[in-house]
Amino acid sequence: MLDFAEIDKYKENNRIEAKRAQGGFPQSLWETYSAFANTVGGVILLGVQELADKSFYPVRLPSPEWLAEEFWRKAEDKQIVSANILSPDQVRIVEARTGGEGSAEDGGGKERIVVIEVPRADRRKKPVFIGSDPYMGSYRRNGEGDYRCTREEVESMLRDADTGSQDGQIFMDLGTEALDEGTMERYIREYSLWQMKGSFEKPVVKEAFWEELGALAKDGKGQYHVTAAGLLMFGKKEQIIKKFPRFLMKYEEYGREAEICFEPSNPDLAEAETTGATPGGWDGNLFDFFLSVCANILEDTRFSSEAAMQEKSRKEAQENLAAGIREALANALSHANYYDRNGVLVRKEKEQILIANPGDMRVDAEAVLRGAAPDARNERISRMFHLIGVGDGTGKGLARIRRIWTQRGWNSPRLLEEFNPDRVVLILPLTKGEEERRKLEEKGRREYTEARNVPRLLDYLTDHVRAGIPELAQALGISEKETAGCIDLLLRDGIIMQEEETEGETYRLRD
Fold first, then answer.
1. Quick one: which of 373, 395, 363 has its CA closest to 121?
2. DSSP E strands: which ranges in 31-178?
3. pLDDT band (50, 70, 90) for residue 503
4. Number of other residues whose CB lies within 10 A of the CB of residue 265
5. N- to C-terminal Cα separation, the chain
6. Secondary structure, 3-state, 294-336
7. What are 334-378's pLDDT values in tens digits?
8. What is the pLDDT of residues 126-138, one digit of tens each?
9. Confidence of residue 282 (pLDDT cuts 50, 70, 90)
10. Which residues, at least 6 apart from 435, have a Cβ–Cβ distance to it below 8 Å?
């Protein structure tokens, strides 16, 4: 909650937008309304100006009541905006003051302003857009302000708005030949072990089993066809790529004598790309990726002893560390948008495990950590994991993982959401103490800054040939320290080169 008694301590950011609104109702408000609704929500302040030092200051509005009424009138007009997602208590008039003694020319430091709290829109109402065309009127918010969504982002939101599960699509041109028998046998083993409480006797499994599981569907003639869930979980890699051209699964491991990296772009998936060790084969589908990644992570002595413990009950088994890691990965695979960019990335480092999946969150991050009801993008895949004892479908998975981490004394897991491209990142620290927590967060911020700004820096050097750090920092809207970090990264990779100029050091793309 904003402290309106000291509004000058705030500055405009990706969750707060200030508008003077002294000349009438600001039409630009709707771009921000759309942007907040389509990302993580935010607060619009009418009757607030941004001073030269970027701080806020209240100004005198002719009629705050009229502005609030005008907002409600326009919000209900489908010709203006596609959906009104606010409740009555989210638009109110408050008295705003500054904490200091100064005064602005038309504010006096104490005025009545209009506060509009825009929530994150329910996925079924996204995209929230201006006018009649979602492709032209949809906006989102990033660190630089409101921006018009790309066609790809709009189509992703439209897919998520569908009440059906994304993995329920039936591919009428694919039969059981698209599935990998080896992967299916491994799943059956896991299924039998869980359902039979640890004993194993290979069952006779027919196509009806896979139909009940959701991997196959029967047409009107009684012929079986593969569903999206079946193809992603058990399919042959070449068939998956045909239906999901952006499909990418990648595992990276650092901190051992050999660095491990395996992904389906490698033409020989029988062996991973390593500098001295192989994590085992991977057939290119979700379930084999899941098994391979979990096996590699749990080889770590910090996990193996925990995984080997003999638990007395299912509840105790779910509380151990190995179960937490399996559930964290299964959650990512169940919520990933396999039509989107980037793909799934799991990276194990000495101090943390990072699990990232493409697609935005369909439930607020804080609500998820508290145990909110699940809203898996791929409900069939989620159920397939539940049937082998990974997760229970209650939505308590991340809350349980956080509890496991607390019991181990490790720093608390963090759940982050990034946009354009959309990505959800779960960070599982393997460190203890406040100082280590601070270092990890600083590392994460640095990596995030580099990931977002390096492409923009390269674009600038492409257009302007050469530039120094001050010029680049101003062009990118980031600090010179952050710019220098990006420069160091590109110099190390040999992408740019340094030149000595009379005015100082400049950088350009390497020939």
1. 363
2. 42-46, 48-50, 56-58, 91-97, 110-118, 139-142, 145-148, 170-171
3. low
4. 12
5. 52
6. HHHHHCCHHHHHHHCCCCCCHHHHHHCHHHHHHHHHHHHHHHC
7. 999 999 878 899 999 888 899 999 998 877 766 666 666 667 899
8. 999 999 999 999 9
9. low
10. none
Mind giving me the DSSP string for 204-245? ---HHHHHHHTSEEE-TTS-EEEEHHHHHHHB-HHHHHHH-T
Nearest to 353 by CA among 419, 434, 299, 286: 299
Kindly report the length of the chain.
511
**Residue 195, C-beta contacts closer than 8 angstroms, at least 6 positions apart:** 387
Q: Is 122 exposed, middle or buried (0-12, 13-18, 19+ CB in 10 A)?
A: middle
**Beta carbons of 236 and 243 less than 8 angstroms apart:** no
From residue 320, alpha-carbon distances to 180, 312, 343, 397, 402 in Å are 31, 12, 28, 13, 12
Q: Cα(488)–Cα(496) distance, rounded to whole angstroms?
A: 9
- The token duo for 358 is 């493409």
pTM listed for this prediction:
0.76
- Which residues have CB under 8 Å from 1's CB, separation 6+? none
